[in-house]
Amino acid sequence: MDYAGVSSIFALRFGIDQATAMTKNTAVTVPIDGLPGVDGDGVTMPFAGAIVGVALDHESAPGTDNNLKAQPTINGAEIAGVCESGAADKHSYASFNPDLYPVAIGDKIGAEIISDATTGTPTPNETVVTVFIQVGQSQT
What is the largest CA-CA distance in the chain? Predict the structure, then answer.
């Protein structure tokens, strides 16, 4: 699908200090700007668009046999798109086609981190997940 017209991409940042060992295959919600307790830990969208990317940055590399992935959510449901950092990586990213993950007005965009590796017990410490949203496109 082609897009025409003015569009822009903006970033939503989520942060957490995950200083305790994570449990394998168990998602940890990353709150908005590191502030827990916000309703649903998501940003309510005032306009329609699409999730077009995600980046994961953390202070400590996950370590041997410990991968860490960042996964955006729409209304609390995980999307299929993720980025994953390997054992020695502190940064990773992924981009997506705007057709894959549409966002409607009123949807809540959030983020999770998940350990899905052999041991599944990384302690990434300060972690930031950035979700990139494209808005203002029109289909042609």
Answer: 48
Q: For residue 59, what are the domain limits? A: 3-139
Single-letter residue type at 107: D
The CATH number of residue 87's host domain is 2.60.120
Gap between the Cα atoms of 109 and 32, Å rounded: 10
**pLDDT > 60? residue 140:** no
pTM of the full structure: 0.85
Instruction: For residue 35, give Cα distances in angstroms to 4, 16, 20, 113, 117.
Output: 37, 8, 17, 16, 27
Q: Which residue has the tokens 């959030």?
A: 110
User: Cβ distance 85 to 61 under 8 Å?
Assistant: yes
State the sign of the Cα–Cα–Cα–Cα dihedral 43, 46, 50, 55. Answer: negative
Counted domains in the chain? 1
- The 10 Å Cβ neighbour count of residue 31 is 17
pLDDT tens-digit profile of 90-123? 889 999 999 999 999 999 999 998 887 666 677 7
Q: How far apart (Å, rounded) are the C-alpha atoms in residues 23 and 9? A: 33
Token pair in block for residue 86: 């390997």
